Amino acid sequence: MKSPFYNTFKINKIKIREKQVSKPEIATNKLKLIPTRKGKAVYEQKCASCHGNDGLGVAATDGTYTYPPLWGPDSYNSGAGLFRLSRFAGYVKYNMPFGVTYQSPQLSDEECWDVAAYVNSQPRPSKDLSGDWPNLLGKPVDHPFGPYEDGFTEAQHKFGPFGPVRDKIKELKQAKAK
Ligand code: HEC
């Protein structure tokens, strides 16, 4: 039986199953702890050797990075695609740890979502995207910034579960089309 909390995200040609990293009924202040515990373990075991325990990467002498920072002042900002969990998880699945390929992924889908939730809970530069989505129902389901028309919180749009959000958006779109 298909779990309602497992959806498949298609990102270009790749597909990744959603892992539920949080429960919507959990208070927002606790929500961060739920996804980060497992994700932190994945990070420390599989990512920190290059990206650093502090997430700040390893700078090269010429001002570029040998290993890019995943959080902190020089990391990708909150407007980047990677800041969406599905994008991060999909990228990491087939590109990280550095050296894996589409044919030889190393992390399970679950680990990818967990580490995505962990890394994307860390501080980073912000970018104002509030003007980008005049049509609120057109926002990607895991776009983590409101406002929304579907009544779900920013936390749920960021961490999921995305199934109920998707269903609601579909329903609202159908209602508008009538
Ligand atoms: C062996 C070293 C190494 C390990 C281990 C590693 N990475 Fe990387 N990572 C890199 C390198 C090198 C790049 C730059 C790749 C490029 O530019 O194509 C990178 C790039 C990235 C990026 C893109 C950053 C950006 O700003 O574009 C993300 C996200 C990322 N890694 C996540 C992870 C995660 C999550 C893990 C653990 C599962 C991990 N990496 C493990 C070396 C590593």
Mean pLDDT across all amino acids? 85
Kindly provide the name of the CATH class of one domain. Answer: Mainly Alpha
CATH-scheme architecture of one domain: Orthogonal Bundle
Do you know the CATH topology of one domain?
Answer: Cytochrome Bc1 Complex, Chain D, domain 2
Name of the CATH homologous superfamily of one domain: Cytochrome c-like domain
Task: Walk me through what this model shows.
The chain is mainly alpha-helical and 178 residues long. It has a domain at 8-129: Cytochrome Bc1 Complex, Chain D, domain 2, CATH 1.10.760. It is 37% helix and 7% strand. The chain contains 7 helices and 4 strands; from the N terminus they run ββαααββαααα. The strands form 2 sheets. The protein has a two-stranded antiparallel ribbon. The chain has a two-stranded antiparallel sheet with strand order 3-4. A hairpin with a 2-residue loop joins β1 and β2. α2 (33-46) packs across α5 and α4 packs across α5. It is globular, with a radius of gyration of 17 Å. Residues 1-5 and 23-32 have low confidence and may be disordered. Heme C (HEC) binds at residues 46-47, 49-51, 67-68, 70, 76, 82, 88, 91-92, 96-98, 107, 115, 119.
Write a brief structural summary.
This protein has helices at residues 28-31, 33-46, 48-51, 85-95, 109-119, 154-159, 163-177, and strands at 8-11, 14-17, 58-59, 65-67. The chain is mostly helical.
Properties at a glance:
single chain; 178 residues; mainly alpha; Cytochrome Bc1 Complex, Chain D, domain 2; two-stranded antiparallel sheet; 7 helices; 4 strands; 37% helix; 7% strand; globular; binds heme C
